[in-house]
């Protein structure tokens, strides 16, 4: 998720751009840049690192330009370097573009443009845009941008300018946010409202498929086909800090609600057009290694470990390859029986967790092929692994991991389906059914997010409990582990996840009158067993919240509270089931007055042992 700013008006543009980028710093980024038109050319400065590095590069210059664009980058395609930073320009240095999103077909476009004689400088997907605009430009930037975007498959918030039309900015969006700020003799563009608040609270919120021509004196909004669109002014009444959270009270809630978009971005370009196969171009595992794979290890910490437990179940189910999953701080010291040719998957949102990094090095030392699933391009695990399967969740700021977890699940589904496809261990119709459901899963998450009130009420009911249990079998147990950690780490209520079938071997002694038990029962082949476990705890007085798919009437007699999941392929249930558990933890923490985004004793990234 990159930050975008643009200005056109009567002020010197560079200070306005830098101020706007400064207000986007909360989102996290790895490089930044600005460009302004001057003397018929472009003045372009961009640097890897923080905004201070860019400001230092600009410090000895004054720029009279009164329009320009700027960008803070959260790298997806191409490491965080000066040359990969935005803005990007065409061959002749006349067109400049900043972009937030993922261009799925950038390889094909890049090859075609190169064949047309265009010369590329960076490794980014974005750089195809200025060259496309250059290709289509006939003295009207608006038409050239429109034609260029017709070639783009994927998501974009794009902002462009050309030296021959100073003061005129063209913007467009599909699945990435863009806002136009309305001023007096000046106008502003940003990916996020905080970048505008110094200057204006009157805005046009662009919708998907809309674009705009912006000059100091007018704004013309249209759809991507050029048809005019009427916009109502949206007056922002948020204060800056609230605006950084997109109007949500906490980053955690914002990130929970970003999950549908994060899933779409993580799946984007990784399922082929007709939805029959997974395509993971970023993996360099040779086909023989895949076919001869004897063992897979998964290792991570905390929430990433819980994603790995789901990964174990689904990879074994789809590929019949034995999978061991370990907490990284255990894995690195247990002298793991890794043989050359084994596959080790390390999972880390930050890519900097000390135990996970150490586990990665241990795996490589023993000859394993290491795949990293991480959310940060250029992070330590990304650099040290043999292959990287990035999650495109965007910056995750709350200490409690939510959108990173759900996109780690998506990455594991892609990996499991890809391995199964390479090894022929899953019937085509089954693989296609799962892929079809996976492509729709973001709508199921959105449905659950819209029903948060029920979960908030349950959180209010249990906020003063001394302890809760999360129980489940198989995939449901894996998700129960994550639900338990979420509740503990932000509401400080003790919770324990337990294999539902194991309770009777001791822990059932703790189930007494009124003890809340969150029972996950999503797996058809285990439903009767889950039902008997619900009966087991009910008989001891437990109060049961049952998470299940619509239609399981038997459990309706038993569950004191029922949370229904939208229909999907049962193997994908973890992606949906975790959402109510995240919301439950969040609202319990709110009800207890806890510091949701920065829980006591915890850090976002544990870079020490
Ligand atoms: C999750 O909510 C926690 N913040 C924590 O368990 C986290 O998942 C763990 O520290 C691993 O972090 P990583 O994914 O950045 O490696």
Describe this structure in a few short sentences.
This protein is an alpha/beta fold and 609 residues long.
Detailed description of the structure:
The chain is an alpha/beta fold. The protein has three domains: 3-237, Aminohydrolase, N-terminal nucleophile (Ntn) domain (Glutamine Phosphoribosylpyrophosphate, subunit 1, domain 1); 251-441, Rossmann fold, CATH 3.40.50; 451-609, Rossmann fold. The strands form four sheets. An eight-stranded antiparallel β-sheet has the order 3-2-4-1-10-9-11-14, with helices on one face. Strands 5-6-7-8-12-13 form a six-stranded antiparallel β-sheet, covered by helices on one side. α8 runs parallel beside α14 and α14 (403-423) packs antiparallel against α15. The protein is globular. 53% of the residues are buried. 2-deoxy-2-amino glucitol-6-phosphate binds at residues 301-304, 348-350, 353, 356, 399-401, 489, 605-606.
Radius of gyration: 25 Å
* Terminus-to-terminus distance: 30 Å
According to CATH, the fold-level topology of the largest domain is Glutamine Phosphoribosylpyrophosphate, subunit 1, domain 1
Please give the domain count.
3
Strand order of the largest sheet: 3-2-4-1-10-9-11-14
Oligomer: single chain
What share of the residues does DSSP label as strand, in percent? Answer: 15-25%
Which homologous superfamily in CATH is the superfamily of the largest domain? Answer: Aminohydrolase, N-terminal nucleophile (Ntn) domain
Structural class: alpha/beta
CATH architecture classification of the largest domain: 4-Layer Sandwich
**Molecules bound to protein:** 2-deoxy-2-amino glucitol-6-phosphate
Instruction: Enumerate how many helices there are, as a single number.
Output: 20
Round the mean pLDDT to the nearest integer and report it.
Answer: 95
* Form type: globular
Helix content: 25-40%
Pick out the low-confidence regions. none
